[in-house]
Structures are given as C-alpha cells and as structure tokens.
Amino acid sequence: MSAKSLAKNLRDEVVYLRDQQSVQAIQCDELVAYLDRVLTSPDEEVDPVRMEQIRTELQSSVEDRKALQASSLEMFRSVITAGQNALRTALLMNGGATVALLAFLGKLTTENPDKLSTFAGSLMIFTFGVFITGLVSGFTYLSQWFYASKRDWCQMTGWFMNILCIVLGLAAYGAFIWGAIDAYTGFQGFA
C-alpha cells in the first residue's frame, strides 16, 4: 500500500469517527488537515518501470561522460606523442647534419683547408637548430607545468608557452632548411 492510499484510508476513517461516532478525543481537525496535505503532495513512490528508465538514463549519461573523458585523454596523449616525435625529428635532422658536416670538414682540413670558411655558416646554422630544439624541450616542460596550475594567469602563460614551442619548433625545421641551402651553395663553389 502506498503512502497516499494509506493516508486516504486513514483520513476517511478519522472523518467517520468524528462525524458518525462523535469521537473528540483526538484532534481530528488537525489530523484531517495534515492528511489532506499528505494527499495533495506529489507521489513519493515512483513506479518500478519509471525507476528503471531513470536508472538506464543515468547509466547511459555516466557511460557517455566516461567515453568523452577517455577520448579527451587519448587526444591529449596523441598530441604529446606527436610533439615529441616532431622534436626528435628536428633534433635528428639538425644534429645529423651537424655531425655529417663536421665529418666532411675534418676531411676538408687535410685536402682543401682554404675552403673551410665556406661551410662555417652552415655548421653554425645546424648547431643553432639543435639549440632551438633543446630550448623547445625546456619550454614544453614549463608549458605543461603552467597548464597543471588552476590559476587563470598560469593557464594563459601555459598557452603562450605552447604557442612559443610551436613557433620555435618550426624555426628548428627552418634552420635545417636554411643550413641545407647554405651548404648546397658552398658545394656549388667547388665546381
């Protein structure tokens, strides 16, 4: 029996006792007023079908949020991994070019020492590309450190440093291209 049906039966009984039996030992008016309030209140019990619908909707909402969170986390991980790969590539390109140019210059010192100055600029550009890549690694750490803070100014600083890392990363690739063009120009002078 629901609370409403119990209250209705109790109210009917109290009204009967009051009107037909003239029982005045209980304060009937107050009890009837209370029971009327109970009867006009919304249902407290939810039928089992509706309760199951509510549970299903809630579970679906929880699962959607979990999937969204997992997707966001995976996207963040993929961005971090892509950034790390870009830094490794820039370091490998500029570092490899520096080492190769140094090996070439070592051979050139014995055969044509007067041509060494032709490649000094290229060596400096490739070395600068390696330096920029190292700088980007440090700024990446600082960017994540600022992002971890919940303060607004830290979030903004992290965002600015993130943009700076992207620009410097592109500059490291640009340094490789510039150094390669400079080295190519130097090799053209050999012909």
UniProtKB/TrEMBL annotation:
It comes from the Bacteria. Keywords: Membrane, Transmembrane, Transmembrane helix. The chain crosses the membrane at residues 85-105, 125-147, 159-181. This is Uncharacterized protein. It comes from Halomonas urmiana.
